[in-house]
Write a structure and sequence with these properties.
- By secondary structure, the chain is α/β, with parallel strands linked by helices.
- The chain has a single domain, classed as Dihydrofolate Reductase, subunit A.
- Helices cover 20% and strands 33% of the residues.
- The strands form 2 sheets. It has an 8-stranded mixed sheet, sandwiched between helices.
- The chain is globular.
Amino acid sequence: MKLSLIAAMDERRLIGSMNGGLPWQGIERDREHFRSYVKGKALLLGRKTYEEMEGWVDSDHSLYILTRNRNYVSKTSARVAFSFDEVISLAEKEAVSELVVCGGAAIYERAINSADLIVLTILHTTFTVEGTPKFFPDWDTKRFSEISRQKFAPSEKSDFGMSIVHLQS
């Protein structure tokens, strides 16, 4: 089974805050890229990220929610697991071909050393957040090599450019 991570971050690797949500809004190209990449694939999300993303994911996804809360019950058909290894085991039993990790920060941190592919949208600016910031983890640059990079100039809707980068192990 292929394990990939997908995230958007600013130049400091900021991905969010303890308060939830993204530090930016309305970056259509990133939203389209995310939806295109994850279409029809199995997704792994932390509980908070899953609850924030309600409405973003639809019925063509197999969802896996990772939580420490042993009393958590999903309102949907998503599978709930209490450890990363349990999620991997469930996905392998269900013959998932690719499991895409969509966050949050603690899930990325746990999964990054097992990843086959990292798909990043890098926003060429920096943001600030209220509350404790959350960052995308460092990765082993000896293990991951850049296999593609698309650069996009600032647009009418945003005054900063962005790059979509694929790193493969």
